[in-house]
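User: Second chain of the day. Same drill as before.
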Amino acid sequence: MKGEVTGKGNRLEITRIFDAPRGVVFAWWTRAENLRQWSGCKDAVNCEFEVDFRVGGGFRQTMQIGDKGHFTITGIYEEIVEPEKIVYRAQLGPAATRVTVKFFEQGEKTRMVLTHEGFPDEMQVKFVSQGTSESFDKLDSLLAAGMPAAGSGL
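Assistant: Same format as last time:
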């Protein structure tokens, strides 16, 4: 199983298996220069990040998505347990949501489970599901190519 997506009501859960150790996968979430390389759907361009990766710190992602317009996502980190878990509040336009990302060792691979809750409707669940899955496809390609994350010590 490479990945599984479940969206129901105001909740989205995506499980992915990455062919890389847990600490490496976790590191790709911790710095702007890392996130810039993979976060954003396949049609996202001019994707920029500002990241203050600490509890109480925040992030800001801006991107242009094809002809759909310019999007900004902001968030505040609520919990960070390296390399096991990241919890943050995210502001997606008018929707305030909560995201929990858990990283599990599976031998030399990592099972990552992202749970995103608080969407106003199932249409937004579907939209975010597609974009997040496409982002994880990009991360998977970087990991498969052996690209080290900035700050990972590799």
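The radius of gyration is 14 Å.

User: Great, on to the next one.
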